[in-house]
Model the fold of this input.
Amino acid sequence: MYIEIDFNSDEAIYMQLRNQIIAAIATSQLKEGESLPSVRNLADNIGVNMHTVNKAYSSLRQDGFLKVDRRRGAVVAVDIDKLHFLNKMKVLLQPVVISGIVKGISREEAKGLIDDIYDELGF
Amino acid sequence: MYIEIDFNSDEAIYMQLRNQIIAAIATSQLKEGESLPSVRNLADNIGVNMHTVNKAYSSLRQDGFLKVDRRRGAVVAVDIDKLHFLNKMKVLLQPVVISGIVKGISREEAKGLIDDIYDELGF
DNA sequence: TAATTGTTATACTTATAATATAACAGAGTC
DNA sequence: GACTCTGTTATATTATAAGTATAACAATTA
Done:
């Protein structure tokens, strides 16, 4: 697990952590059933507080990317409720896409960006 | 201009304002060259502080959705630098789309969401 | 002159992010 | 049994950002 935190970013540390872990799952650097570093261990590694890592893990658990195994700590366990997530995803995409529309970005150009992202991850 | 603020939302008021103004531009409720309500006027209407509206206007100006005409106040004036905005848009879409990939949402399903958003706005 | 425009400055309150210690219950190891 | 490690919870503190509250400024309009 290679995590890189930008402390000058305006994005919260726990969100950077969250997004990078999800990306690691998407690229199979983290596989279903695999354990993540302990909150204390990862916190030491990247030089942040334990609670910051815990907040990232908690939100990942909340959104169905992790489960907690008392024996093995935080484990990758993606629960897939596509319908629910499609709605959530649309809400998140909406403001970004609408800004694009105003800026003259065509439907096909927007879909091109989606293609780019899928391509770069090898999907 | 119909603006509706959800004070219980976790989305900042000035961001709700910003997104709704951009959406109004996209749907031609606000047209190029049209004036927006004054910061004080709009602030009174929706029941927030003047500075909250000013923050929304400032960020819209910064991102090239408005210009300030000393005679007419804040005016819709979309400056279009597509290339720059495509890059910005990709960065914003990335974490959302990657989450979708992990949740098993296919490339075509993601593009379907883009279509939905364009369709709903009539583009 | 009076009123309006966006903008800037200052001060205050509130909410959230992040840090710092500390403790807990459950599980594994010696 | 003693010890260590797991996520989790509690409490307190600091820092930053959001939002409110007044006030003033220069430019413009009536």
